[in-house]
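Please predict the structure of the following assembly.
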Amino acid sequence: MKLITRDTSYALHAICYLAKENDRIISVDELVKELKVPRAFIRKVLQKLNKKGILKSYKGAHGGFSLNKKAKSVYLLDIMQVFQGPFKLNECVFKKKACPELKKCRLKKKLDNIEDYIIKELKEISLKKMISSKKL
Amino acid sequence: MKLITRDTSYALHAICYLAKENDRIISVDELVKELKVPRAFIRKVLQKLNKKGILKSYKGAHGGFSLNKKAKSVYLLDIMQVFQGPFKLNECVFKKKACPELKKCRLKKKLDNIEDYIIKELKEISLKKMISSKKL
DNA sequence: GACAAATGATACTAATATGGTATCATTTAT
DNA sequence: ATAAATGATACCATATTAGTATCATTTGTC
């Protein structure tokens, strides 16, 4: 029951590295050396982030990637959703016949509240906060 | 990215039904008819709940299952953890070499806080609350 | 222009988790 | 004794996650 998958994790590592290097164009080779992640995997991850507009890519010789946004306006939730899809913690458990005396799905309501809280929190964690030395 | 899996969901349905029937012994057959869930699957689910002490089982003819605890002392979190293992939202994303300037894994800290909150909330949802007509 | 160095696109494989089925052994009320 | 129930377990199908490989395209440099 994990919240963050491997690809999201690799993405975070890579993006943090890029963010700290400002607008320098950084190749996959450099990232692989620095972060010690599988080359083919991280390439896919970076391409996806590029398509989503979070990174910018430069093709050809001396190509690579750089951040396409301000570090303060990229949020953990955004990155997670690139790889893990929309954040949906529950699909109404009590639909259909079960627990039929329940007029409304009250459990779902409660779970939705929890979900809202998580989303709110994850939206508050910006890349800037992640790489700064200040407290989150 | 769902919080509640199918087996947990079936378990919740079954447990709610048992709870509403108080200490009556209820067979798999009855549960299957009532809840319209796959027989073999729900059997496995019930056996697991029995092993964990949440249900009590009665073997032989006229056997079946009943709740082994007070409805107010069975919590959603317990049931989830039977099927989905310990609730761990993150396995330190920033371990190893990555983001090396971070002295301590501060992201993990933040995620841990979120996790703590979720656990607290899920612990507050008792079976009693689930089957009562009052607000959660 | 030729070539090498880079990403883009995409197809494939392997491992694990999830959802579900089937079977035989054991227990127990009648 | 027998039938009705659960216990234990092995199995299968599908989806998701993790990872690999290959060829096409772009682009800087000589």
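Confidence is low (pLDDT under 50) at residues 96-103 of chain A. Residues 106-124 of chain A form the longest helix (19 residues).
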